[in-house]
Structures are given as structure tokens and as C-alpha cells.
Amino acid sequence: MEAVAFTPAQIHVLNMASHIKTERSLERLQDQLARFLAQQVDQEMEELWESGAWNEQKLEELSHAHSRTPYK
Predict the structure, then answer these.
(1) How far is CA 69 from each of CA 21, 66, 72, rounded to the nearest angstrom?
(2) Predicted TM-score of the model (pTM)
(3) Per-residue pLDDT of the chain (72 residues; tens, 9 = 90+)
(4) What does DSSP assign to residue 4?
(5) Most exposed of 35, 58, 62, 72 (fewest Cβ within 10 Å)?
């Protein structure tokens, strides 16, 4: 079995989660984490757009891509 090394952020979240006592509190934490991650994605996409690494042409190409794994 391989040992898992947690990052400081993971350890912090685990320590905070140890104080969760109710299902409602867990739901609220999950909601906050989802919002945080969505904001991170939005920020990174904005940076890609501003740098020119992502643009309308790439978005259009992606909308027509057929990325499914072929199965036999």
C-alpha cells in the first residue's frame, strides 16, 4: 500500500472538517468548496483568454471535436 502525502491545503481542510457535526453543516461546506473551485476555474479561464491561449477559434474547434473513445 502506498502512503498518501497530503498538501498543507488538504490538511487544513481536513482539520476544519473535523468540526462538522451536522449534515447541514457538511452541505454548507460542500457548497462553499464548490463555489471556491468554480471561482478558481473562472479566474484561470479569464487569464487564458487574456493571454490569447484560449480564444473563439479554439472554443469553436472544441465544439466540433469528437473526443469519444472508440470501443470495439
Answers:
(1) 43, 9, 10
(2) 0.66
(3) 888 899 999 999 899 889 999 999 999 999 999 999 999 999 999 999 999 999 999 989 888 888 778 787
(4) P
(5) 72
